[in-house]
Specification:
Elements lengths: L6 H14 L10 H11 L3 E5 L6 E5 L5 E6 L13 H6 L14 E5 L32 E6 L2 E11 L5 E13 L1 H8 L8 E13 L13 E8 L5 E6 L10 E2 L11 E4 L2 E5 L6 E5 L7 E6 L4 E7 L24 E5 L13 E6 L10 E12 L2 H12 L3 H8 L3
C-alpha cells in the first residue's frame, strides 16, 4: 500500500475503530431535524436563508466555520451533508482528529512530508505521531459580520511544520448563499423547469501575519476544502479531467490499492467513481489535468451535486505523502473518496467525499491567499437532471446507470 494517504480518507482509517463504540446509528433526518440536533449540542449554529426560496445552509463557528449541511427544500427538505451524530452528541474530543462531518470544512495542507503540518519535527510518519492542528480541528472561529444570507468568521493563530518553521497566520472564511440568478450565471444556462436548488460560495483567506516572508525551502501551505456527503447504491462521483496524451500519469487511483474497474470507469475525459459507501477507495487528480468542477449524481434520490473551484495548472500543490519527499509541491488539486468498512468490519460512515485544494504561495508579511469554492445541489425529475448533466459534463444519465449496474 502506498503511503500517499490524504486526511480526507484517513478519517475512516484513523478513527473508525475508536469512534465505533460511541457512534449510534441515527437515521438521516431532514434539514430541520439536523438543525435542531446541532442547536441542541452546539452553541453557535447559524442558518443562512433568503426570503425568496426554500434553500438553506447551516454553519457553525464551533467547528471552524464549517458548513454542516444544506437543503433545497426548507426545513422538511433533504439534508445533503453527512454528520457524525455520535461524536457531536458525545461532546467529547478525540486524540488525533475530530471527524464531526459536514459538507465543507476548512483545512490546511500538507498533511505529510518535510513540510507537514500534522507531524512534529523529527518524529516518524506514523499514526501515533499524527495530529490534526487545533486551529483546523478544535478551535472556535468568531463571527466578524453576519446577514440573512452571508456570514464571515475569523481566526488568528500559529502553526509549526515538520521542518520547524513557525507560521503566524490569520484565517477569514465567508459563507454566502447564492440565488437562482447566480446559479444560472455560474453554470452558463437557465435551470430546467421543476428543479429545486441550493448553492453557496465560500471565500477562504489565508494571511501571513508574521514578520517574515514564507519561503518555499522552509515550507508553504495550501487551503484545503473537504466535503462529506451521503452515499447511496446509485451514486457516482463525476470527476472531469483534461484528456491529454499522458493524462493517466496525472491521475492516482491506488491510494488504498488499485480501485477495481467495477468501481472506476474512464469515459472520454470523465472519471465515474462509485460512491456507495461500501468500498474504500480514493482518487487524486494533479493540477495538470484537473478541471475546475467535479460532483456527483444520485440516481436513487434524483439529485445532482457540483463543486466549482480554481485550478492553477502550473501552481505549487502540496504533497501529503507520509514520507520525506523528492517533490513536495507535486500534489493533487482534486481528490474524491468513497468510504467503506475497515478490515475488522468497523466503519465510521458511510459517506463519500469531494475535496479541492488551492496552490501554495510564498506570502509576504501582510499578504493573503484567497481561495473560493461554490457548492450546488439540485433535485428534480430524471429528465431535468439529464439536462443539467448534459450542460455540465455532456454526460448521458444512461451511462451512469450502466456503470452503477456493473458488478
Amino acid at each position: 500500500m502506498k503511503l500517499n494517504i490524504l486526511a480526507g480518507s484517513l478519517l475512516a482509517v484513523t478513527i473508525g475503530c475508536n469512534e465505533a463504540a460511541e457512534k449510534k446509528d441515527a437515521p438521516p433526518g431532514n434539514f430541520g431535524e439536523d438543525v435542531a440536533f446541532l442547536q441542541k449540542h452546539l452553541q453557535n449554529v447559524v442558518v443562512l436563508q433568503s426570503s425568496g426560496d426554500s434553500s438553506r445552509v447551516v454553519v457553525t463557528g464551533d467547528y471552524q466555520a464549517r458548513v454542516m449541511t444544506s437543503t433545497a427544500g426548507g426545513d422538511a427538505g433533504k439534508s445533503f451533508g453527512w454528520l457524525n451524530y455520535g461524536l457531536i452528541a458525545s461532546g467529547k474530543l478525540n486524540p488525533h482528529i475530530n471527524a464531526f462531518g459536514g459538507e465543507e470544512r476548512f483545512w490546511l495542507g500538507p498533511e505529510g512530508g518535510q513540510y507537514s503540518l500534522f507531524f512534529p519535527p523529527g518524529k516518524p510518519f506514523d499514526f501515533d505521531n499524527w495530529q490534526t492542528p487545533g486551529l483546523i480541528d478544535t478551535a472556535h472561529y468568531t463571527v466578524r459580520s453576519q446577514s440573512a444570507g452571508e456570514i464571515t468568521y475569523e481566526y488568528a493563530g500559529n502553526v509549526q511544520n515538520y521542518s520547524g518553521t513557525n507560521f503566524r497566520l490569520g484565517i477569514t472564511r465567508t459563507i454566502r448563499l447564492l440565488n437562482s440568478q447566480a446559479i444560472a450565471a455560474r453554470i452558463s444556462a437557465a435551470l430546467p423547469e421543476g428543479i429545486k436548488s441550493v448553492a453557496y460560495e465560500t471565500e477562504n483567506v489565508l494571511t501571513n501575519t508574521g514578520d517574515s516572508a514564507w519561503q518555499e525551502e522552509r515550507g508553504l501551505m495550501s487551503i484545503w476544502l473537504l466535503g462529506m456527503f451521503k452515499p447511496s447504491p446509485q451514486t457516482a462521483v463525476i470527476a472531469p479531467f483534461k484528456n491529454l496524451p499522458d493524462a493517466r500519469k496525472h491521475i492516482t487511483d491506488d491510494y488504498f490499492g488499485k480501485i477495481p474497474p467495477q468501481n472506476l470507469q474512464v469515459k472520454d475525459s470523465l472519471l465515474l467513481f462509485r460512491a456507495d459507501g461500501k468500498a474504500r477507495g480514493k482518487l487524486g487528480l494533479s493540477p495538470q489535468v484537473a478541471k475546475p468542477a467535479a460532483g456527483s449524481i444520485d440516481l436513487e434520490n434524483n439529485t445532482l451535486t457540483v463543486l466549482f473551484y480554481d485550478v492553477v495548472p502550473d501552481g505549487r500543490y502540496v504533497n501529503s505523502k507520509w514520507e520525506l519527499q523528492k517533490e513536495p509541491f507535486k500534489g493533487d488539486a482534486v481528490n474524491c473518496y468513497n468510504d467503506g468498512p475497515l478490515a475488522d468490519g468497523s466503519q465510521m460512515g458511510p459517506f463519500y467525499e469531494v475535496e479541492s485544494s488551492s496552490d501554495a504561495r510564498a506570502l509576504k508579511p501582510g499578504e493573503s491567499l484567497t481561495y473560493r469554492q461554490v457548492t450546488m445541489h439540485f433535485e428534480g425529475s430524471r429528465e431535468a437532471l439529464q439536462t443539467l448533466a448534459q450542460q455540465l459534463w455532456q454526460l448521458p444519465l444512461g451511462d451512469v446507470q450502466q456503470f452503477l449496474q456493473t458488478k
